[in-house]
Amino acid sequence: MTFIEEEFEGLYGRYRITNSDRLEVENYRKSLLLCGISFLSGILHWLLIGPEYAWAWLMPICVGLGLALKWIHIYLKPLHLMLQVLWAAGCLGTLLLIYFTGANQMLSKLVENPSLLWLIGPLFAALTGVGFKEFFCFQRIEAIGLTCLVPLALIGHLTGLLNNFIVLIALFLAAISLLTLSIRKFGMSIAADIGDKSVFNYLREKNTAISA
Hints:
The chain is mainly alpha-helical. It has helices spanning 19-48, 58-71, 77-101, 106-112, 117-138, 141-159, 164-184, 190-194, 197-211; strands spanning 6-10, 13-17.
């Protein structure tokens, strides 16, 4: 199917949605879907089989979220960069956990020692940021579910205010929210995910003028 470029009137002038924009949006949606499928699969694995080998689902979560953060459209560059830094810190923390605790013992150690969440937590903080962005832009109920449930589960476990079963259920519902969000995005227009490109162009020109 041939993609037809469209022009729109933005806050700072007219802009065009190009084929390159379309590819970025499609890649973002596919990456988010990979993250959602992996997140839900990992939680189901843990609930139905146990924590052993459930750690393996963290790998596609890291890949999917990293790629989604590469192609996501966020007006504020510092916010975009912050989410990418959180993702990188979380991936590094995950590798450190695997190295020091052993892959198949990692999740059990996280249950026994909640303070280890400080290593892997930034990864899920980045995921929460994606959920917040999606809710801020599109007011989808599943996005606010993701944004609230992930920190609720992790903070609840870190502080000991929630027992392990409730933490897993909260993560299960967060995973369902993410998967629902990622699936529903395929029914949205490309332009909706791109946003107002005139704002991007304005901010880029403004930053260039300040740097000059």
